[in-house]
Structure prediction request, 384 residues.
Amino acid sequence: MDNLTEIIKSRIRDYGPITFAEFMERALYDPAHGYYSLGNRPIGREGDFYTSPHVHKAFGSVIGNFIIKSFNFMNEEGLSIIELGAGRGILALDILDHIKTNNPKQYARTNYYLVEQSNDSRNESKKILEDHIEKVCWFSSLSEIDNKNISGVIISNELFDALPFHRLKITKGNLSELYITLDDRGDLSDITDKPSCKELIDYFNKIEMDFAEDQEFEINLKARTLLNEIDRVIRTGFILTIDYGYLADELFNSERMKGTFKCIHNHTINETPYINIGQQDITAHVDFSNLIRTGESLNIKKVKYTTQGQFLIDWGVLDLIGNDLEQNDKLKNSLAKDIQAIKNLFLPELMGDKFKVLVQEKNLSEKINNFYPQSPFKISFKVL
Prediction:
């Protein structure tokens, strides 16, 4: 038996059943054994999953376009970019390369903060970002950033889905919570009991939907905590959240009787979190209605909620393809691979509709109406 599994079982033997959120916190973020803390989980072909920055640098370039316009819009000295869950710095590299090439004056007055828990990932990102080393600084958590007067853009890509969540269930018409205990053989297993805290009940009451008997679903209380941290740090600017998920009416639809949580190990999806503990990712779809609602309670207001595909179209991904066509006509084979990779990012049947984008702003609402571009090309046919 591996050390992390035994640590969790010992915790249950000593103190009783634990919430799924506590289990997930240990499985993903235990300092010595957690999946993300170890920093040795490759992303991409050799790892468990792909993220958009690893598909093509165009993803970071388009976000670079967003940041350039955001900074011009704010028109302040000393603007900053904060990336949450920055990993090895791949996205940061593409963003900084794009800004340096397309707006060197703005690059000169930009600071980039990478927030990443894994020591190994932070060390690797220092190598990857060597050409931008004077622009970048690193933190293990957002709470380490003492400056509470930052103006700029806060980015997260596939972060909220990995925050520890609670698993809930409707049992005999009432809200109950799924806990983890030990069965007669000493294996990890689920039981149901009353919700572990009042915050879960409050969250549930705000959903305002009819749930089916025995329906299971996830509630992420950490999202509000993180948004409060963001509110503490940023004085004025934009918050850009990219993740897979839905608004509440789609996320909690009774067609999803088992919720949306899943585990990922070597590109294979499973629904068995109690195997490969510390060796596999655990995730659930993001409740974007909660992010919007929580933001509004903090005076962080929605600018746009859309699909990743439409966001990339709106902010110039087709222009990037056009530039590649002009510059790389002689490199047709390489160009074809580039174009296909970019298509993977925005086409609806690929990553384009799977991922959503939420743009929020703080203290900019008086002049925000004309900020977001309206592309004539609509790739998403969903009402957003």
The longest strand covers residues 234-246. The CA atoms of residues 206 and 290 lie 9 Å apart. The mean pLDDT is 87. The chain has 15 helices and 16 strands.
